[in-house]
Amino acid sequence: MFPFLLLLFFLVPLVEIYLLIEIGGVIGVGWTIFSVVFTAVLGAFLVRTQGFSTIKRIRTQLDQGQLPAMEMFEGLFLLVAGALLLTPGFFTDAVGFIFLTPPLRRSIIKYILSKGIVTTPGRGPAAGAQQTPRQTIEGEYRKMDK
Fold it and tell me: For residue 97, what are the CA distances in angstroms to 33, 38, 88, 116, 121?
C-alpha cells in the first residue's frame, strides 16, 4: 500500500501541473484561474448540500434501528471529494466531482466492498477473530439485597 501512496503522491502533482499548463495555454491564464476557483466554490457548495443530505439519511436509519453503513462510506467519500475539490487542479477536480455523483459514488463503494479492499465489521479477515453465531442462554436469576 505504501508504494502506491508514494507513487500517487508524486504522480498527481505532475499530472496537475501538466494539465494546468496545457489548459492555460488553450484558454488563457485568467480563465484557467477562474475555472480552478469556480470548481472549488461549486464543489464546496455541493459537498455541503450532499453532506447534510447524508447526515439526514444516517439519522433516519439510526432512528429506525438500522446500521447506516452505505451512508457512512458516502460521508467518507464526500470528505475526500471536498479535499480534492479544494485542491487546485483539474485532475483532482474531476475525481472530486466523480465522488460527488451519487450513482458513481455508490458504485465505487460497492466495488471496493466487493473486492475486500475495505471490509465492514464482521466480514473478512479485517474483522479480527471469527465470530460465532449468537446463542441464547436461558436461566433464572434473583436479586439479593445486602
Answer: 18, 13, 13, 24, 29
Chain position carrying cell 438500522: 66
Contact 40, 84 (CB under 8 A): no
Domain spans, the chain: 10-118
3-state secondary structure the chain: CHHHHHHHHHHHHHHHHHHHHHHHHHHCHHHHHHHHHHHHHHHHHHHHHHHHHHHHHHHHHHHCCCCCHHHHHHHHHHHHHHHHHHCCCHHHHHHHHHHHCHHHHHHHHHHHHHHCCCCCCCCCHHHCCCCCCCCCCCCCCCCCCC
pLDDT digits (tens, 9 = 90+) for 79-134: 999 999 999 999 999 999 999 999 999 999 999 888 877 665 655 444 444 455 66
Global pTM exceeds 0.85: no
